[in-house]
Known about the structure:
This protein is an alpha/beta fold. Helices cover 27% and strands 22% of the residues.
Amino acid sequence: MDAKPISDRLSVSGQIRPEDIPEIAQAGYRAIICNRPDGEAPDQPSFEEIESAAESEGLEARYMPVVSGRVRDEDAEAFGAALKELPGPILAYCRSGTRSATLWSLAEAESRPVTDILASTKRAGYDMSGVVRRIANAGKTPTDRPDATYDVVIVGGGAAGISVASSLQARRSGLEIAIIDPADVHYYQPGWTMVGGGIFDAEDTAKTMGSLIPRGVHWVKAAVAAFEPGDNAVILDGCRVIKYQRLVVCPGLKLDWNRVEGLVETLGRNGVTSNYRYDLAPYTFELVQKMKGGRAVFTQPPMPIKCAGAPQKAMYLSADYWNRHGRLKDIDIGFYNAGGVLFGVKEYVPALMEYVEKYGIDLNFFHNLVKVDGDAKTAWFDVNKPDTETERVKVEFDMMHVCPPQTAPDFIRVSPLADEAGWVDVDQSTLRHKTYENIWALGDVMNAPNAKTAAAARKQAPVVAENIVADIKGKSPVAQYDGYGSCPLTVERGKIVLAEFGYGGKLLPSFPSWLIDGTKPSHLAWLLKEKILPPVYWKAMLRGKEWMAKPEKLETA
């Protein structure tokens, strides 16, 4: 425990543990404030454990969790009230102490000069320069004085964000559009399966963000901290304020690697890999090439996830490589799926099952990966079969491809835009927010029940653009999204089962069955994935050329 005094009444520290409480009490502290949400890291003690230890030493403990980087005005007000109510001196903690120091800085902003606050936190080792503006504004987020204002603000510069910006420009010249995204690099993520299979080079799936932002669109290179939809404002890290007439939210989703205990520590070594990361996809193929025998494990977490077929794609391409090199008989392949079916649209399952049998894959449903010990080459799964108690099983492996758990980004989940599950709450047809009429969402972050794929975003972008332009003209929504998503399942090198479907699992093929029958493996579908879709992505989709993606007219009653 390393407590750092900030004022006579408060010290802050990083994570404490129950065994630290006697030392804290001996140091004279009379109360503890926890600013770290439970479950933020797998090795983190819960607040209940801290509170129990504190009570045994006669200390008061209060739980005031704040998501990292997302200190709200009301959090600071509550913290200030706690400082007055609790007996002092007080120790506040989070992961590193930064959130606690920030809360104190904002809570004290009305009663202390800015220079005193900055000096006090600096002495304790915390830099508050990123929130100076809020401190100077009496600890409040200054949404009334924007740094910039645009006709349309787009949060997220991925496939969805750039596509919708281009589609808007194509329909309405002269719009002042801004894309907010802190990333320097834009990735063609559908290509990572092919990288992991040794077909694409990783470098070919990446381009600089600056080279892809449409000409005339402003790029705000920053992260979003919060939304103030009542004030038509987006708050950036560092407390800059961007105002908008209309807002489009499409920052993608969060790959929650930390939810699996031990996974982060072993990724990229010990035979543990994932095609869900640019830097690890080449390692997947390296492992496949080196593997001569043993056990290969492929995992899939609970839905929703980005591209539900991707965990299988990695497995089939790996198995095909081993089959072609005469190694398959010496390799035991296991698929561990937290769900209860191989694929969510039944029409594609027979073709996939043929490959499961061809490769001798052992299917394990209702198995959710919860822990990995890379050094011991061991994984643990919680088995949650219907109407049975959860059972934890241990599986040894020589190679393991992991699909991580996935959630909405933190700043979305805690925002007014989110539904109870944390996803942006939209009308699934018009993609307009259900509460805020000047806000739309598309891509992986919204809660429409479609597959989260780049192909879905390709169809969604024109719908959003069409409906925003209609709104600008004072009209009701005119375009609808039918839930289209595409999942090219790479069942072997040279053949793909081209799954295309919409809401409710309705089949929505793009081609006549005599050309490509999506329910059967096809070489033509492989050529589409390998040769045609990458240039379509870079040169058409991101540039507002809506090849086979024209929006459907909204059906009205």
